[in-house]
């Protein structure tokens, strides 16, 4: 066999150098920009049947651990299908009240109204926003909002396109005129359709800042026009 016809031994390939990827700088922790203290100790969180209800366990656990808040949760029947009342009860250390399931001697909305220094309604669906704007009280959450005397924060969670409707805009404007603290909407995808747009609930840091601002004036009361 000639030297030319001999099969050349395969070259040993050098180990491929791994490209060095620069370390990504850690993102700024948004929760570092929230207030160190809140001007309240007892907070009632009421929830209607929007998908944002699934965020409440994480929000509640963080609020209690960070600020030592005493929490109470109230759910519509639709909300109770989206978030576990047992999970919320464990976080609050007190029973979660679901519309139509309370058998207390004193109506649930009165007990909650007496307990809370502030009321948060999150998420507030377009249906609930309309009821609050018209003074309708046909379930636990809407009745609680009607009789609550302290600062009331409404955190809308709307479907895509809803904010473009004049009726929704009128309802939100009326709530503001009536003394409710209506949180601004966020841009985000719809959990149902995946479509992005204006209508999502605020994220937790923005919510905490808004809550602190709403509760800063202890003399503020729902029903006092702005």
Task: Explain what the structure shows.
This protein has 226 residues and is α/β, with parallel strands linked by helices. The protein has one domain: Rossmann fold (3-Layer(aba) Sandwich). The protein is built from eight helices and eight strands, in the order E-H-E-H-H-E-H-E-H-H-E-H-E-E-E-H. The protein has helices at residues 56-67, 77-80, 85-92, 108-115, 126-134, 140-147, 166-177, 204-214; strands at 42-47, 70-75, 97-98, 118-124, 152-156, 181-182, 186-189, 196-200. Strands 3-2-1-4-5-6 form a six-stranded parallel β-sheet, sandwiched between helices. Strand 7 and strand 8 form a beta hairpin. Helix 4 crosses helix 6 (140-147) and helix 5 packs across helix 7 (166-177). The longest helix is centred in the first third of the chain and has 12 residues, at 56-67. It is globular. Mean pLDDT is 85; it is low at 18-28 and 218-226. Keywords: Membrane, Transmembrane, Transmembrane helix. It comes from Thermoleophilum album. This is Flavoprotein. The chain crosses the membrane at residues 43-62. GO terms for molecular function: FMN binding; phosphopantothenoylcysteine decarboxylase activity.
Essential attributes:
single chain; 226 residues; six-stranded parallel beta sheet; alpha/beta; two-stranded antiparallel ribbon; globular; Rossmann fold
